[in-house]
């Protein structure tokens, strides 16, 4: 679809440049308008975008855009290289917070009242601590990303069977239908946003999940990362409800007048899936931080020590209690042997 949009944009820009070169007299002679707006580049996907280009794309595409990076390291590693506020823009962007931006090159002022941007990318487990550990695990940046970490023990086999053509055609039909969907016309015939209220049964399910599941995990957890995730999952749960209901409506499985109980059930299952994925991936994110200081921690620990003694020494090195405990439990098996509950011995 972006390829189609790009052809339209190139054609419109060609007409605009032609109009721009004409004098007012020539425009009048050719029955051209006195004013002509600069064509907007409509798109869905932005690849390898700078923050400046991203903001322009969101301005031109008020429904939002997607950043796709096969290697997400190329995006996150460039944060703050040219602009010290890049990461803060993305922190606020998650919540759709309105923000202002002034492009210094031409002093252009851009105001985004409802910015929206999704990010999809992949990386290797060894890069997780660099991309999402340290400060990014503490300021909520890491928990804004939904992570998928499948347990793959072997590579899938190749075969000659192609993807069935009808599957590809059906998927394209669905996506094009989503893209062409327009909310009901508001006042003065203008396209407006629309809201899907929750059915009473769906609302009851979500409130029960919040009070009985998410709040309990938050209160019982000693991990700041897990607490931060609890907050972000509540935001994602509501978004999942909307996405699931709209897709069911597009596929003819449900109405699009409210978020029903079935969509709420599916959204809760999806939310808990990502919680499980985060629990698998957290040790991988923290190992890089531990690698920087575990040698010093090990050197300061006595030959035989307790958990509380290790925690006290870790605090002097800037390690949290949960980080030290996880290190003793998972990260130092080659160097530390557990003698009894709460008692350890160096190997």
The largest pleated sheet is described as: 3 strands, parallel
The whole-number mean of residue pLDDT values reads 85
What strand order characterises the main sheet?
Answer: 1-2-5
Strand content: 5-15%
The SSE string, one letter per element, is: HHEHEHHEEEHHHHHHEHHEE
Give descriptors for this structure:
8 strands; mainly alpha
Map the helices and strands.
Blueprint: H1 2-21, H2 24-29, E1 45-46, H3 51-60, E2 65-71, H4 73-76, H5 86-93, E3 99-103, E4 108-112, E5 117-122, H6 128-132, H7 135-138, H8 165-180, H9 200-220, H10 224-250, H11 261-300, E6 304-306, H12 307-316, H13 321-331, E7 336-340, E8 343-346
Parallel strand pairs: 1-2, 2-5
Antiparallel strand pairs: 3-4, 6-8, 7-8
Structure explained in plain terms:
- The chain is mostly helical and 347 residues long.
- The chain has 3 domains: 2-126, no CATH class; 127-150 and 196-280, no CATH class; 301-347.
- It has 13 helices and 8 strands.
- The strands form 3 sheets. It has a 3-stranded parallel sheet. Strands 6-8-7 form a 3-stranded antiparallel sheet.
- Helix 12 packs across helix 13.
- The N and C termini lie far apart (60 Å).
- The model has no long low-confidence stretch (mean pLDDT 85).
